[in-house]
Amino acid sequence: MATMLFGFGDKVGSPVARERNSWLLWPKPAPFRQSMIGPSPAITSSPRVVARSARQIWSTFAMTSTATVTPIAHRTVSHAAPTAPGAIPLLGHWPRFGRRPYRFLSTLAAVGPVVRVRIPGYDTYVVTDPELVREAFVALSDQGLMIERAEALLGEGVTVLQGQRHRRERRMIAPAFAKSRIARYAAVMTRLGAERAASWRNGDFLAVNEQMHDLALRTVAGSLFTGELGSETAEHIHRLLPPVMTLLSRRVTRPAWIDRLPLPGNRRFDRLVVQMKAATGAIIAAYRAELAADPDLDHGDLLDTLLKARDESGGALTDSQVHDELINFLVGGTEAIGATLAWVFHELGQNPEVEAALHAEVDAVLRADGPARAAEFGDLAELEVTKRIVLETLRKYSPWLTVRHVPTPYTLGGVEIPGGSMLFVCPVAVHRDPAIHPDPQRFDPDRWLPERMADMSKGAHIPFGMGARQCPGNVFALTEIALQVATLSAHWRLRPVPGIPVRETVIGALVHPEKLLMRAEAR
Ligand code: HEM
């Protein structure tokens, strides 16, 4: 279980062997050495062991690592970070950051590996160098003020918890993402993918971002509660979540006192949160009653795993903690998977040669015996092109911000960072830095061929973060995206609609396509 939590107990400057960037791993069949939730790998500073440990984790997605660890040159002399140019009196960089956040952060690699940014209220440092990104993710795990703002919805789930409580609960939720469980959730993904493929008609104009968001939400909700009992609740949550997410993303980026004003938006948010709690509370009570009657019952879903989770001393999660974790999974999973799926189809529409390679692959795997079928968990090993497309999409369109709180003075890459500061890592900026990923705007899934990623730094591909807070749903997400891309592409080609430019827009921590309209063409 603790392999999911490499950063547990990390101290500043702890050995690199404890971090776990999964992204340097590649789909080449490898012996399965250790389950993703197996015992924690031995702690060692050997770079070779780093690569092996990461490979073990990612063998869940049938990938192997060719990663090497690059030494950092700039460590010896300690100095102050350069400040980003363009600050204005009082507001500092806020106008530039607030208007086009990740575009502003993308300019900072030219300034230095660690750059000071002036945002009123926060002493902020931005890390642009992938090796230092890796080091910071391993050393620091708390997120500070910004995430506390999301507490109204996320309650006391892992996203918000800090320190020892975070470590305990990460261990307890880990079995929910074990390989055997992912295989069971994959059955839900396969079913919903097939239903979605069957729901489109030739020539339909599809709002692709809405379609994919809906599919992602149904899949996460369907994996939370698989049984009959859960379908009504899943449907209810499906209606509640989109408005809650919209209101939440507004809250986290504005001053806290506004949340307490009796504004219509605040009242609506509070009402929706109460309704979500009531919906999940009812299903938790029903599951508990069923499990009390038959302790051997296994619903095979996330809720079942959470109710059976125990810590080292046999303690279970309370109803309120189970509820909070469910909401954390829903919120963590839905938006990011939906946006990534939408970007996949946008990029396929723009890159006919990539689309052709994908179609050749899915035809070989899913149409071998006649009409196209939906992709299943067991097909993943053969869906090599599909998986490369998923990784490349997550490079170009990952979350744009992860935040770490620096509790005490900390030296990173020779730069002194005062205690109490915020550290920003902008995955989109790292992923689009031409010095790290040449020709970054080009959608090139073959970047993820083993020979081409051999020298890539571990901090160069970080859509799921790293260290103690690395996304616990990473394998779930990769599985879901790969299966849905394969299933939908076996049946449909989505064509761009001429004359409608597709713009990037920031919603919460993600870059979404704004109005992605495409036309469905039967294959
Ligand atoms: C493409 C899909 C996804 C992306 C890009 C993504 C990205 C991330 C990132 C970057 C973090 C770490 C944030 C940080 O370092 O501060 C994170 C955390 C988290 N994710 Fe995901 N995620 C995805 C899917 C999922 C899914 C499917 C689930 C659950 C079903 C999930 C649940 C969570 C939770 C609970 C956390 C908080 C972990 C903690 O703080 O310990 N995510 N995710």
Automatic annotation (TrEMBL):
Record-linked Gene3D superfamilies: Cytochrome P450 (1.10.630.10)
GO molecular-function term, one example from the UniProt record: heme binding
Superkingdom of the source species: Bacteria
Pfam families per record: p450
Cofactor(s) this protein requires: heme
Keyword Metal-binding among record annotations: yes
Binding sites annotated in the UniProt record for heme: C471
InterPro entries reported in the protein's UniProt record: Cyt_P450, Cyt_P450_CS, Cyt_P450_E_grp-IV, Cyt_P450_sf, Cytochrome_P450_Monoox
Entry keyword set: Heme, Iron, Metal-binding, Monooxygenase, Oxidoreductase
PANTHER family reported for this sequence: BIFUNCTIONAL ALBAFLAVENONE MONOOXYGENASE_TERPENE SYNTHASE, CYTOCHROME P450 FAMILY 4
The family this protein is said to belong to: Belongs to the cytochrome P450 family.
Protein's name in the database: Cytochrome P450
Classification lineage: Bacteria, Bacillati, Actinomycetota, Actinomycetes, Mycobacteriales
